[in-house]
Protein: FAD-binding oxidoreductase
Amino acid sequence: MPIPTYHPPKKSRYDVVIVGGAAVGSSVAYWLTLEAQGKVSVLVVERDSTYEFSSTALSTSAIRQQYSNPINVKISQFGVEIIRSFADRMAPYFPGEPAPDLGFKEYGYLYCCSPEGVEAAKERVEMQRSLGAHTVFLEPAALQVQFPWLNVDDLGGGSWGAEAEGWFDSMGLLTGFRRGARAMGAEYIDNAVTGMTVADGKVTGVQLATGETIACGTLVNAAGPRAQQVAAMAGLSIPVAPFKRYSFVFSSATPIPGRMPNVIDLSGTFVRPEGPLFLTGNTPGDDGPADYDDFSPRHQEFEDAIWPALYHRIPAFDALKVQQAWTGHYEYNMLDHNGIVGFHPEVTNFMFANGFSGHGLQQSPATGRAVMELITYGGFRTLDLSPFAYDRIPANRPFLEEAVI
Structure:
């Protein structure tokens, strides 16, 4: 394979430098260039333009409205709006070829609920429905009728979102945002930011791995699991670290009839169909912060934890065979599992877009738009994401999201 030719930045200064060019960073670049219409210069620095180990590429690529926090419901509703209309929105940037169709499978989510958690689950459903979500709470008998393959013996019920929830093409979303941003003037370089210069409460420049120093007006941290590494370059700190998540694709000797949603078990294991196969994963109990470059698999996770949970919840899964496995990183916000979006109060041109704890892909459309609004107008004009502001971090004031998978 030929070695790619290195292309240095075209300029020595940009109005906005975005560190990280996956889903969140490219969404920021897209919304900025769309709004600015050529009046703002944007540089996106992506350390690996193949995106092989990006959280976007290794994501399970799903979106839901079943959150415990109203703002997260609204963020996902905007995400669904963008996903459904994505091909039409991106068509101008793909002349002569098809724009990305994200293949949105609106099969829904089914959250299994313990008997002790019924009242809290019903309250969440009521809140979600008040915001326009289609979630319903099903008692065990109704669950059994709707999903006859489900073991409901130890359940108090389940919350089911039959519309505007499902899974889609993560790389199609990234490709569209990136292509659109570049068409409107954003510049992407395959490089890494290795340092920053801070003076008088502002980031004045970034140092690249190839030796160049680039001046900037605003610095956007969209570095995913490496968010703290980038923040530290400006002398800042956020409680965000990479946590491993193991995903497995398997075949089953017994098919599941009907339209199967993404089932979230009490154990934290999830499972959904992928064509004739199934995708599963879980929230491991001992997956402390990982090394930034550690993507080693743990195959025993399937045998020891996931398969027993699958077989208990769906007895038809008695004969399974793993076909594929991979390990990705969550950019886990250890304070409250929610994103950090907004400027730092002291390094006043340092913008955070970090810590989404596994739901960054689905929140990338709204996050990119929100960051654009803060940079362009100094405040939110659509969704108010002020609860995600940085100031809760040093104050140790969690803005909790309970529905984390």
